[in-house]
Amino acid sequence: MRKIKIIAHVSLDGVISPGAPDDDSEFANGGWTAPYRSPAGLAAVLELQGERFDLLIGRRTYDLWSRYWPKVGSSPMADRLNGATKYVATHRPESLEWGPVRDLGTDVIEGIRSLKASDGPDLVLWGSTSLTPMLFEQGLVDDVVLVAYPVLLGRGKRFFSDNVDPRGLEFVSSMSTPTGVLLNHYRYAGPLQK
């Protein structure tokens, strides 16, 4: 059985980063992670992501990444992302070109359940605000890594939406970078205990 790990770059007030400074207005101040990137941060992300994994991503992330990662040249991050099988939640599977790639089918949750129950490398979900609530609701999340940047953005798309039920997470580890980025690793513990 595969594990599902969610990784997200967030501000201290929970705004998610799309990674591109020219992304649309849904994301406030796109590209705000750039000044905080460092070799130590990249090494920590690579370690937490793992050497071998498959990607579980929404269509929006797939479209953003397919315009960038295949063109950047060889690097540990690019090689891992480009080489991973991408499992995409989409209504337009015929237009998927950045591979290896497969769509999750018309019933996304059932597709993810089948995928999780199969043999293969663990699944990494990079910051999908549409898939994350569904995975938590269905109890399919194993690990959460929040890469928290020392910024407050005030507005923008939140990683955890208001429709996510209260959940408990167990602390696994924390790392920091010289630029003040915290990489906090948690294991899913279930519904919030009161």
| Biggest pleated sheet | 8 strands, mixed
Q: Determine the number of helices (DSSP H or I, runs of at least 4 residues).
A: 5
Span between N and C termini? 30 Å
Strand order of the largest sheet: 4-3-2-5-1-6-8-7
User: What proportion of the residues is helical, as a percent range?
Assistant: 10-25%
Mean pLDDT across the residues is 87
Residue fraction in strands: 25-35%
Please state the structural category.
Answer: alpha/beta
Quote the CATH topology: Dihydrofolate Reductase, subunit A
Q: What is the radius of gyration computed over CA atoms, rounded to a whole number of angstroms?
A: 16 Å
CATH C-level category: Alpha Beta
Overall geometric form: globular
Order of helices and strands: EHEHHEEHEHEEE
Describe the structure.
With 194 residues, the chain is α/β, with parallel strands linked by helices. It has a single domain, classed as Dihydrofolate Reductase, subunit A (3-Layer(aba) Sandwich), CATH 3.40.430. It is 23% helix and 26% strand. The chain is built from five helices and eight strands. The protein has an eight-stranded mixed beta sheet, with helices on both faces. Strand 7 and strand 8 form a beta hairpin. About 5% of the residues have low confidence.
